Amino acid sequence: MHLNAPLPADPIIEQPGLFKDPRVNEINDRDADQPTDMLNLVRLADTTKPNSGVDNMSGAQGYEEYRKGVTDLYAERAGVKITWRAFPVATLIGPSDELWDEALIYHYLSRSKMLSMFTDYEDYRVNHLPKRNASIVDSRLIETTVGG
């Protein structure tokens, strides 16, 4: 599944203070109770990084462990579910160096529930985020309108 292309020059994977970015914080200016869909584009690592709970796996295997944990444990709490999943094969319009292994749409019952999952330091950031970060080399999370 992994694309054989150069790694991005500036991957941003869980930088400290990410939610201090004003572009991300604009989500707080919208209705917190409104449902939201997030397009997630993922570029997988060949192999996972060590000491992450998904050691010695392919990026695809490690990301699957992350995805199962998040959708199982947060399905009720954050109302998260995958509503669409695909595997991009080519970028027809856009930067040729942006190549993705997987594309998903995650649906959340509300923006506030989505943010509560991401900021859960006792579970998400300890038990799940390290698996994600060890399994990918680049990603995009793009808020969209709710699909129909």
Structure description:
Residues 11-17 have low confidence and may be disordered. It is globular and about 40 Å long. It has four helices and four strands. The protein has a four-stranded antiparallel beta sheet with strand order 2-3-1-4. The protein is an alpha+beta fold and 148 residues long. It has one domain (33-144): Alpha-Beta Plaits (2-Layer Sandwich), CATH 3.30.70. Helix 2 packs antiparallel against helix 4 (124-135).
Which features does this protein show?
Alpha-Beta Plaits; alpha+beta
CA-atom Rg in angstroms: 15 Å
Which CATH top level class fits? Alpha Beta
Tell me the strand percentage band: 15-25%
Structural class call reads alpha+beta
Summarize the structure.
Helix content is 26%, strand content 21%. It is of the alpha+beta class.
Helix and strand topology:
Layout: H1 22-25, E1 36-44, H2 59-73, E2 81-86, E3 102-108, H3 111-118, H4 124-135, E4 136-144
